[in-house]
């Protein structure tokens, strides 16, 4: 592991974010963690992790977060929400929530901290995006749109910030075996159908830590998904036809 850093992890009270915060703390980094679950935050605090209760959909929460924490060396945007349903069945409140948490919040956080990173001449912003940001599938229209948006944002600021010594990485995992799946698809069908293909949270966390230690542009998980996304970019109709049965597992 690289030299000890000040690392800020959002979405740190469940799933990948929770495991990542614990691993980074165990490795000796100064970890700051935000999330909504007070009980989990208290547990993290007992481990020596700096915690901030924050609802990323509320502007006041973002302002409080900025006030409490100086600019970190590395930001890892893990917070995310999803609702898997056909467009005509989606609630507008769920559509708005996905865009606020998955897109607007990380944009605002990145903007704020990038200013100070520019003054310092260094920094690393990591987005835990999704393969859905490269290949959209049925019942994930708004979720996929949010991930397409954050990938586009990351690609743009990577070019803007490079000359200031700030690195930008996207982690693009497929479905992960975390509580997120149960919340996004309350039918349970998606988890059942993809059980053999689900990524372990540990595998994703290891990849994030490797990217912190040895920064790269992007990481696709599993690695073969990079082939699928590249094929989709060139032959979308063929990929949609051939992959129809897999894409319709939700």
TrEMBL record:
<dbReference type="InterPro" id="IPR036291">
    <property type="entry name" value="NAD(P)-bd_dom_sf"/>
</dbReference>
<dbReference type="GO" id="GO:0016020">
    <property type="term" value="C:membrane"/>
</dbReference>
<dbReference type="Pfam" id="PF00106">
    <property type="entry name" value="adh_short"/>
</dbReference>
<comment type="similarity">
    <text>Belongs to the short-chain dehydrogenases/reductases (SDR) family.</text>
</comment>
<keyword id="KW-0560">Oxidoreductase</keyword>
<dbReference type="InterPro" id="IPR002347">
    <property type="entry name" value="SDR_fam"/>
</dbReference>
<dbReference type="InterPro" id="IPR020904">
    <property type="entry name" value="Sc_DH/Rdtase_CS"/>
</dbReference>
<dbReference type="GO" id="GO:0016491">
    <property type="term" value="F:oxidoreductase activity"/>
</dbReference>
<protein>
    <submittedName>
        <fullName>SDR family NAD(P)-dependent oxidoreductase</fullName>
    </submittedName>
</protein>
């Amino acid at each position: 592991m690289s030299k000890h850093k000040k690392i800020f992890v959002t979405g740190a009270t469940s799933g990948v974010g929770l495991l990542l915060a614990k691993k980074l703390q165990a490795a000796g980094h100064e970890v700051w963690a935000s999330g909504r679950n007070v009980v989990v935050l208290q547990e993290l605090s007992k481990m020596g992790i700096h915690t901030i209760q924050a609802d990323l959909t509320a502007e006041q929460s973002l302002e409080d977060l900025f006030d409490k924490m100086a600019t970190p060396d590395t930001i890892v945007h893990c917070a995310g929400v999803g609702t898997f349903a056909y467009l005509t069945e989606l609630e507008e409140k769920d559509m708005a929530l996905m865009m606020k948490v998955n897109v607007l919040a990380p944009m605002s956080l990145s903007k704020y901290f990038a200013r100070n990173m520019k003054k310092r001449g260094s920094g690393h912003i990591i987005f835990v995006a999704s393969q859905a940001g490269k290949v959209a599938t049925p019942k994930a229209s708004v979720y996929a749109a949010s991930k397409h948006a954050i990938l586009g944002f990351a690609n743009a600021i990577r070019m803007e910030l490079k000359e200031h010594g700030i690195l930008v990485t996207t982690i693009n995992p497929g479905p992960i075996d975390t509580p997120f799946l149960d919340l996004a698809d309350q039918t349970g069908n998606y988890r059942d159908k993809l059980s053999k293909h689900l990524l372990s949270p540990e595998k994703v966390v290891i990849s994030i830590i490797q990217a912190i230690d040895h920064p790269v542009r992007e990481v696709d998980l599993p690695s073969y998904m990079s082939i699928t996304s590249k094929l989709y970019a060139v032959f979308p109709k063929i990929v949609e036809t051939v992959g129809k049965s897999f894409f319709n597992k939700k």
